[in-house]
Amino acid sequence: MNIARVDLNLLVYLDVLLRECNVTRAAEELGISQPAMSNSLRRLRDLFDDPLLVRTSDGMTPTDRALELQPLVRNVLAAAELAVLPKTVFEPGASDRIFRIMASDYTEATLLPKLLQRLRREAPGIRLDIMTPSDVSFHDVERGKVDLVINRFDSLPQSFHQVHLWDDSFSCVMRADNPAIRGWNLQRYLAGNHVWVSKTGMGVGVGMSPDDVQRLGWVDEALQKIGAKRMITLFTRHYQAALLLAEHDDLIVTIPSLAARSMHANPAVVILDPPFEIPRMRLKMVWSPLLQHDPGHRWLRQLIKSVSEEITA
User: Fold this and answer.
1) What distance in Å separates the CA atoms of residue 63 and residue 54, rounded to the nearest whole number?
2) Per the structure, how many domains does the chain have?
3) What is the value of pTM for the model shown?
């Protein structure tokens, strides 16, 4: 195929169609009529010799070929956007930009305090809008409506950019006079009452079941591998709430160690290593290819990476 004979605008249409999976919404985003978008989809099907989007009971569903093309097309368009953008310099000290970041409660407790200190020194006019995992979908991130997602993930869309921030071990936090401390071992751990803290994913939350080990996450999956199960008394989505409960009740809270670190100076609690092996959790920073080359966005990503290195040093 001679690329000179291909209407490259079709790649723009394909990018939006695969994000929206809806001809009407794609047409609205591009400011063209629905018949014009339908005609573009027909031309795209001819170009790639593939239906690309197929109508199913769930709406328009991308084919395997479409899913294969999506990150390639996004990268081509991002490179084209970079080539035609005027050269700009981001001045953080003079900026009053608002960055929207989806961050789990764990991230708020570990990363944000240090990040805010750096922002006050280097860019006092910049503001952060922190959103929770249930506020945001992958679709929002893909469209650039959210600047960054800082969380842990089982899987990510191929088109997303990502940076590893740190790995974290786990610690057990409990009241200093909790009976489980005496002769601390796996038997003592399993005999206690436990607080489950959210396995931080994305999307609207649903109720938890103590029998759904896969959804319970790291701690309970690790226990299952050794043929053990803990008694979960309380489910919460907030690390800070879990730590407060550890201080005031006979409960055991097993959470990532950097979050537990905030309780080190509190004489009312003790922090112990779990009496069994739990795989380390990995925190990532994720963003849309639409924002990859934005100067301000690039500056913020570099700042967050620098702060992460300070925290884990």
Assistant:
1) 7
2) 3
3) 0.70
User: pLDDT tens for residues 153-201?
Assistant: 877 777 788 899 999 999 999 999 999 999 999 999 999 999 998 755 5
CATH number of 20's domain: 1.10.10.10
C-alpha neighbours within 13 Å on the C-beta side of residue 87: 0
Report, as ranges of residue numbers, the positions in the chain whose pLDDT lies below 70: 1-4, 82-88, 199-215
* Residues 57, 100 within the same domain: no
Structural domain for 217, as ranges: 170-279
Tokens of 66: 């479409």
CB proximity list for 146: less than 8 A, separation 6 or greater: 100, 101, 102, 131, 136, 140
One domain, residues 140 and 267? no
Q: Are residues 62 and 32 in the same domain?
A: yes
